[in-house]
């Protein structure tokens, strides 16, 4: 029983970390080429902060997923898992839209939808497990910051 929980926990961690790792390739490609040439707002963090921050956020998503997965089966649990999948897919897509396809306007629309999906995930997670929901708050805050950063870039705030 303990081994099954450990394996489930590892799978729950690997899912978002793998998604983040794959989308990270699009990010690295964009940072090394296009992103390094654009004007960034004064509050742009240094590039080195992004990898540890996103790794931490993906790990937190995995812990939240595990807490939801371990909860008793219910309609609320099912809905929480669906919303988790939607937000993870949107998260994956954003890196490609912004960094790989170099489309900040489309990325702004998409990150707005992602923000709503993260907020919904927090609400749905909290219905099943309050801790799982609260763990996602730093993720929402980071995406909020990224959204402000993107708006500033689009309107050319120095």
TrEMBL record:
It is found in: Membrane. InterPro entries: TspO/MBR-related_sf (IPR038330), TspO_MBR (IPR004307). It holds the Pfam family TspO_MBR. GO terms for cellular component: membrane. The chain crosses the membrane at residues 48-69, 81-100, 106-125. GO terms for biological process: tetrapyrrole metabolic process. It is a multi-pass membrane protein. Keywords: Membrane, Transmembrane, Transmembrane helix. It comes from the Bacteria. Belongs to the TspO/BZRP family. PANTHER family: PERIPHERAL-TYPE BENZODIAZEPINE RECEPTOR, TRANSLOCATOR PROTEIN. This is TspO protein. The lineage of its organism: Bacteria, Pseudomonadati, Bacteroidota, Cytophagia, Cytophagales.
């Amino acid at each position: 029983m303990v081994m099954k929980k450990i394996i489930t926990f590892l799978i729950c961690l690997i899912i978002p970390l793998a998604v983040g790792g794959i989308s990270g390739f699009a990010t690295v490609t964009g940072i090394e080429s296009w992103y390094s040439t654009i004007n960034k707002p004064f509050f742009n963090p240094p590039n080195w902060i992004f990898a540890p921050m996103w790794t931490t956020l993906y790990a937190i998503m995995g812990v939240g997923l595990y807490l939801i997965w371990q909860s008793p089966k219910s309609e609320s649990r099912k809905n929480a898992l669906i919303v988790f999948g939607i937000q993870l897919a949107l998260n994956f897509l954003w890196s490609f839209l912004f960094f790989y396809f170099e489309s900040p306007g489309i990325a702004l629309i998409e990150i707005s939808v992602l923000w709503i999906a993260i907020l919904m995930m927090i609400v749905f997670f909290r219905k099943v497990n309050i801790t799982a929901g609260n763990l996602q708050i730093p993720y929402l805050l980071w995406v909020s910051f990224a959204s402000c950063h993107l708006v500033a870039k689009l309107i050319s705030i120095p």
